[in-house]
Amino acid sequence: MKPIETERLVLRNFRREDAGGLLAYLASPVASCFLSLTLRDMDAALAEADRRAADDAQVAVCLKDSDQLIGDLFAHPEGDTVSVGWNFNPAFSGQGYAFEAAHTLFADLFQAQGMRRLYAYVEDHNVPSQKLCERLGMRREGLFLDYISFQNDDAGQPVYENTMQYALLQREWGASSKR
Questions:
Q1: What is the H or E stretch that residue 167 is in?
Q2: Distance CA 11, CA 69 (A)
Q3: Bridge partners, 139 (sequence order)
Q4: 112: how many CB neighbours lie within 10 A of its CB?
Q5: Exposure letters 15-31 (e unless 16+ CB within 10 A, then b)
């Protein structure tokens, strides 16, 4: 991808040098949907950085002044529809970085790439991501009960989570006065 700069951030492809930043927030993922991406050590982080570097759908979010990785976005196209999501280092929460990065990605997807529809899945207990979806202008389209399991309980049985789907159409993005 061509790097995109905001006032405080750079959105770009991953690099091998991002391994330490990935390890910082994937050693113990906050959101259960990222548990399968848990990194055990720097070797695993290097392999993950290399894997992501080869995939334009994976977007590194870095501080503009230091190039420090603080999180990531993903945008998986399915024709003119894109599945989007985010995962940020909790050490950088509460500063508006996730909104700034996701808003910039949405603008690129709709305006530069001409996508028609974006959607995101969010667990019903992940209130910060729900609020981010709403702040981005996404509307909740549905709630899937016992939709998916990312972990097992102490007895080895799957723990199913309720998942919300949020979406935003290009025409809604363009018509919104929030931008």
A1: strand 158-169
A2: 10
A3: 167
A4: 10
A5: beebbebbbbbbeebeb
**For residue 1, what are its two tokens?**
């991808």
- Characterize the bridge pairing of strands 69-78 and 81-88: antiparallel
Query: Distance of CA 148 to CAs 7, 36, 119, 133, 139, Å?
Result: 37, 13, 17, 20, 21
What is the C-alpha separation between 141 and 172, in angstroms, rounded? 14
Please, is 71 exposed, middle or buried when counting C-beta atoms within 10 Å of its C-beta (0-12, 13-18, 19+)? buried
The encoded tokens of residue 63 equal: 């501080």
Those residues of the chain that have pLDDT short of 50 are 177-179
Give the pLDDT of residue 59: 98
pLDDT of residue 149: 66
> Which pair of tokens denotes residue 142?
């549905």
